[in-house]
Design a protein that fits this description.
D-Amino Acid Oxidase, Chain A, domain 2; binds flavin-adenine dinucleotide; 20 strands; 406 residues; alpha+beta; FAD/NAD(P)-binding domain; 8-stranded mixed β-sheet; 2 domains; 10 helices
Length: 406
């Protein structure tokens, strides 16, 4: 099989990139490949699927704001719940975040400051501190924030891609590669690059350019070709608890209208789905969690030791709840700046390193990846802003560190 461009990985990043490639280069043949049965069935399906444009780096703000504005044009299709995002800070966190908070200026029109009294009007939350749980000093509510369905985002881009004539191969795993010339025996004067990939059904795809959008699997695959992708995987876990009586948590807010909550204790976050009597919670566990794609699923001990006590402190009225679901996935981290990576070596391109916020940046990252592959120096985002394609590369990187990662 010959093609002009092959995109490997049909999560939100690969699906959006494939669509934007076909849109920007309509005469080309583009194929999108994934080993799963459905688009988005990798880590896209494992996410909390929250979106926000509260980021300290200008690059992340641009990527997320334009992506969210695009998503808001098709709210039903993406199951958008524009409930907002309430980030709660202790006094120490607030003081330590002064620089990062001052970088929020460009998005300040979509932010509201909540003092503890305002919080108490909305939630049955405890705002004083005790032991390891700091008191709540300030709340920052992002209005251009909420949740959606990550799978629907991936499926949407695949549909649009196919409508433009793109080809999709599902249940096909990339198993092998043939490099140009002599594989690992390159002489300095040899042409470098990837000639073809072999799929699990034995077929071979060769031709133009390859864009790997493998999220947390990026290093595992590219490493086999001698490439350091600048990204590493790390396990992250989510737990769903059933709350029979939402009034144990709510004061003035309606069950279907509660913002996502970041509590001031060690990055514990809550995605409230109280109209379904559910709270989904996770925690930015870091130390002790290896950089590895392996992992044995969610760890209940971890929930009981690290998350349940935080919930019990901040929501002291929350008495009747039951752990109903649990799952884990992997972030694809780019350290130290935690912005996405869009890079290439010869005809082999990759887009990954979304560091836990790939869904909310998918449209913009897809535009940057497609533009980079086509040699366009400035990617045009949905909202008309432009971003230099190379600013997300490893070699010419031009981004500031992102501090608001959970
Ligand atoms: C617990 C958790 C919570 C999260 N919460 C949020 C959130 O609230 N908001 C947000 O924006 N982001 C969140 N994220 C991050 C988000 O899920 C990712 O940033 C995003 O899904 C990355 O998309 P992707 O397309 O790069 O990766 P993926 O969706 O993982 O796609 C990669 C694809 O590559 C395919 N693949 C891998 N190897 C091969 C191969 N050899 N051959 C063929 N196909 C292959 C996989 O099947 C997969 O479909 C969260 C992640 C986790 C784990």
């Amino acid at each position: 099989m010959d093609f002009d461009h092959a995109v490997i990985g049909a999560g939100v990043i690969g699906a959006a990139s494939a669509y934007h490639l076909k849109r920007l280069d309509p005469g080309s043949s583009v194929v999108l490949i994934d080993r799963e049965k459905r688009p988005g069935a990798g880590n896209t399906a494992k996410s909390a699927a929250l979106y926000r444009n509260i980021f300290s780096s200008r690059t992340s703000q641009l990527l997320a704001t334009s992506t969210i504005r695009y998503f808001l044009t098709i709210p039903e299709k993406l199951q958008i719940r524009p409930t907002g995002y309430l980030w709660m800070f202790s006094k120490d966190q607030w003081d330590a975040s002064k620089n990062a908070l001052s970088n929020l200026d460009p998005v300040k029109d979509e932010l509201e400051m909540w003092d503890p009294e305002r919080l108490l009007d909305a939630l049955k939350i405890r705002t004083d501190g005790s032991g390891p749980f700091p008191g709540v000093h300030k709340g920052l509510l992002g209005r251009l924030c909420g949740s959606l369905s990550g799978m629907s985002v991936a499926e949407h881009y695949v549909e649009e891609f196919m409508a433009l004539g793109g080809e999709v191969l599902l249940e096909k795993e990339v198993k092998g590669f043939e490099l140009k010339n002599k594989g690992s025996r390159f002489a300095p004067w040899d042409e470098q690059g990837l000639r073809s990939i072999t799929l699990s059904d034995g077929s071979e795809l060769s031709g133009g350019k390859f864009l790997f959008c493998l999220g947390a699997w990026t290093q595992e695959v590219l490493g086999r070709m001698g490439i350091f992708s600048g990204t590493l995987p790390k396990k992250r876990q989510l737990f769903g608890i059933k709350v029979d009586d939402p009034s144990q948590v709510l004061e003035g807010l309606e069950p279907g209208n509660v913002p996502a909550l970041i509590l001031p204790a060690a990055g514990t976050y809550v995605k409230p789905l109280l109209e379904r009597k559910l709270l989904i919670t996770g925690l930015a566990d870091d130390l002790g969690q290896p950089f590895s794609i392996d992992g044995d699923g969610p760890d209940i001990d971890y929930f009981e030791r690290a998350i349940a006590p935080v919930l019990s402190h901040y929501f002291p009225h929350l008495k009747d709840w039951e752990l109903k679901m649990k799952w884990s996935g992997h972030y694809s981290y780019h350290l130290p700046d935690k912005n996405p990576v869009v890079e290439n070596k010869s005809n082999l391109h990759w887009a990954a390193g979304t560091s836990g916020s790939g869904i909310m940046k998918a449209d913009a990252v897809g535009r940057v990846a497609a533009s980079g592959l086509l040699g366009i120096s400035d990617a045009e985002l949905f909202d008309g802003n432009r971003i230099p394609t190379r600013s997300l590369s490893l070699r010419h990187r031009d981004v500031t560190v992102e501090s608001f990662v959970i």
